[in-house]
Design goal:
Elements (H helix, E strand, L loop, with lengths): L1 H20 L18 E4 L1 H7 L3 H12 L8 E7 L2 E6 L1 H13 L14 E5 L11 H19 L3 E5 L7 H13 L2 H6 L1 H18 L2 H15 L2 H25 L16 H10 L3 E4 L2 E4 L8 E4 L7 H16 L3 E7 L3 H13 L8 E6 L2 E3 L2 E2 L10 H19 L6 H18 L7 E2 L2 H4 L7 H17 L15 H10 L2 H10 L3 H21 L7 H25 L8
Parallel strand pairs: 4-5, 4-9, 9-10, 11-13
Antiparallel strand pairs: 1-3, 2-3, 6-7, 7-8, 11-12
The chain binds one RNA strand of 77 nucleotides through helix 2, strand 8, helix 13, strand 12 and helix 14.
RNA sequence: GACUCGGUAGCUCAGCAGGAUAGAGCAACGGCCUUCUAAGCCGUCGGUCGGGGGUUCGAAUCCCUUCCGAGUCGCCA
């Protein structure tokens, strides 16, 4: 709502000034740094420049024009301080407007930004035969949260888990299994044993480069449909997926499609043919490439031995998705280090003559670092996500036992708190920043954390549960109070925050907003007793609390956190 | 070497389509529970916004340069 004011004031004021001076004038409506200066602000320096009139004169003119804009009825006062014109809203009227708006909406913040449009999101996409690591967490929860945010914006969202179930690393695991693996041991604990084999392969390959050659052979035969290898592949895929589903269940993550790389195995030839037909494919040093210009390296489509590569499969997947889902946009939630790959992917699509290259977005995110260095599976330094989530849940349970030992369903709630703490710890940071793996920080329950949001929501819930409401009369004058109005102003920004998070593909924008809202509420809570005797005052406060709680809960849901009622 | 991303308080980060005295949390220190959940609230301490130039009425924000860290750079994904 506050944003609507900004937009409409800007529009009205510009139009009025354009008419008055008969020239293009563009102004800015922003929020002052300090709340005590006002609610909205118009800096006039740029107008002084374009009109070449003294500043005091411009200030007077803009002040005068401001009294004529459409929203002027909501203004309480217009001051000026050194080139800034500050508008203070009539808090009572503005509050009534926001509250009515809230009450008349089923799902506050829901908008029609993406009405009728489809977006495919490729996220999580773990490489099978390896445990689900902390490294996969980022893609999984950023993608999941973006999906939720996009749905809130009215998009039809197709969630795709593009499993890494093909490629030479996979062939390495098969080689190791067949040559020195033990079937019984592997069957006991498939995923963990298989990754051991993979790590072992890499160690041995360092001493014996022939192994890499063997793995490439296996991969080739697998691609051709060798029965033994395909059976093994099916077994490994199934066991891995079983393992991952445990984590997805814990996180509440779901997908519409689990079509991984293997699914596109028979769809790549068509891509190769099309590239050939369009004369884009060039033979270079024995391999087939597409030249992409001087600024970036060419895309390797086929290896010397004829086997396909990552980008070939991604192209096949891309066209399959385009033809199946008819997406308006496709998002790839994949780490920073693959930036070049997606630049190449887009460039190839563009070269092929399709116009949707610009609708392909690499939603990159920072690396998970350990001691400032990239984590790597090859060295076996893997941190299993399941262990992290369990650790966080155990710590939550300890906390509950200390703070609220009589709580019912302790274990379940502890899991919700622990998992959400890990999720929030990730999403609160802007996604492209690198991420230092630090368990202590993840399960720290004080300050800017998931539990802080849950705690705030639970506190409100607790009051609402015990509240006796005897009236529906509101006293909007209460919103003259700073601590009331601060909360309300923030509530009015919810929809804008969601749209901003959508435009920047950044759940962290929503996360920071929720922290701020929770903080404002907790300050309010310390100052005001809610369940007072005066029934109109009580009802007004309860109304404010309910709005706050609804937004906190909805926001947490969008981030992929669990909403709990007690803790 | 080329290209990309980052460098803001002791630590983790926000702010960056230029705007008013640079903001949070953690840590440290000091307060606040006979009243709705203290996983909270209030306060104190803490900053040459990596360095140097430039553009501008105004720069953490834009441009150039330099230092530091990370990532990527044809047969892995």
């Amino acid at each position: 709502m506050l944003n609507h004011f900004k937009i409409s004031i800007k529009k009205d004021l510009e139009q009025q000034l354009n008419t008055r001076f008969n020239q293009e004038i563009s102004i800015i409506v922003e929020e002052p740094k300090k709340a005590e200066l006002g609610d909205l602000s118009v800096p006039v320096f740029s107008i002084v420049k374009t009109l070449r009139k003294p500043l005091p004169q411009i200030v007077d003119i803009v002040k005068e024009e401001l009294t004529k804009v459409g929203d002027a009825a909501y203004f309480n006062k217009i001051d000026s301080v050194s080139g800034f014109i500050n508008i203070t809203l009539n808090r009572t009227k503005f509050s009534e407007l926001v509250i009515n708006d809230f009450d008349n909406t089923d799902s506050y913040g829901q908008n029609e930004f993406g009405q009728g449009k489809t977006i495919c999101i490729d996220y999580s996409s773990p490489n099978i035969a390896k445990p689900f690591s902390i490294g996969h967490l980022r893609s999984t929860i950023i993608g999941h949260s973006l999906g939720n945010i996009l749905e809130k914006c009215g998009y039809n969202v197709v969630r795709i888990n593009h499993l890494g179930d093909f490629g030479t690393p996979f062939a390495k695991t098969i080689y190791a299994y067949l040559n020195w693996g033990n079937q019984e041991i592997v069957e006991q604990d498939p995923v963990n044993e298989l990754v051991k084999l993979y790590v072992e392969f890499n160690e041995k390959a360092k001493l014996d480069p022939n192994l890499d050659e063997e793995a490439r052979k296996i991969f080739n035969e697998l691609e051709q449909g060798n029965e033994t290898y395909v059976k093994l592949w099916e077994y490994i895929r199934e066991e891995s997926l079983k393992d991952y589903m445990k984590v997805y269940d814990l996180l509440g993550v779901r997908f519409d499609s689990y079509n991984g790389e293997a699914f596109y195995n028979d769809k790549m030839q068509a891509i190769v043919d099309e590239l050939k037909e369009k004369k884009l494919l060039i033979k270079d040093q024995g391999a087939m490439i597409v030249d992409l210009g001087d600024d970036i390296p060419p895309a390797l489509i086929q290896k010397t031995d004829g086997a396909t590569l990552y980008i070939t499969r991604d192209l096949a997947a891309l066209f399959y998705r385009k033809n199946t889902y008819h997406f308006d946009e496709v998002l790839y939630v994949v780490g920073n280090e693959q930036k070049l790959h997606f630049t190449q992917l887009k460039r190839v699509v563009d070269k092929m003559g399709y116009d949707f290259a610009e609708n392909i977005h690499h939603i990159n995110f920072g690396l998970v670092l350990q001691d400032g260095k990239k984590m790597s599976t090859r060295k076996g330094k893997i941190v299993k996500l399941e262990d992290v989530l369990n650790e966080a849940s155990t710590m939550s349970l300890d906390y509950i036992n200390e703070k609220n030992p009589g709580l019912e369903n302790k274990e379940e709630i502890a899991t919700h708190i622990g998992v959400s703490a890990v999720v929030f710890n990730d999403l609160k940071n802007y996604r492209t920043n690198d991420f230092e793996f630090n368990l202590e920080e993840m399960v720290n329950f004080a300050g800017q954390t998931g539990p802080y949001l849950q705690y705030t929501s639970v506190r409100i819930q607790s009051i609402l549960d015990s509240a006796l409401n005897t009236t529906n009369k509101m006293n909007y004058d209460l919103f003259e109070g700073e601590h009331y109005f601060d909360i309300l102003k923030n509530i009015s920004l919810y929809e804008d925050i969601i749209i901003k998070a959508r435009l920047e593909y950044a759940p962290s924008i929503l996360a920071k907003y929720l922290l701020n809202l929770a903080s404002l509420f907790n300050s309010f809570y310390a100052k005001e007793r809610v369940l007072v005797d005066d029934e109109v005052e009580r009802n007004t406060k309860l109304h404010l609390l309910k709005m706050t709680k609804d937004i906190l809960n909805d926001g947490m849901r969008l981030l992929g956190m669990q909403v709990i009622l007690k803790m």
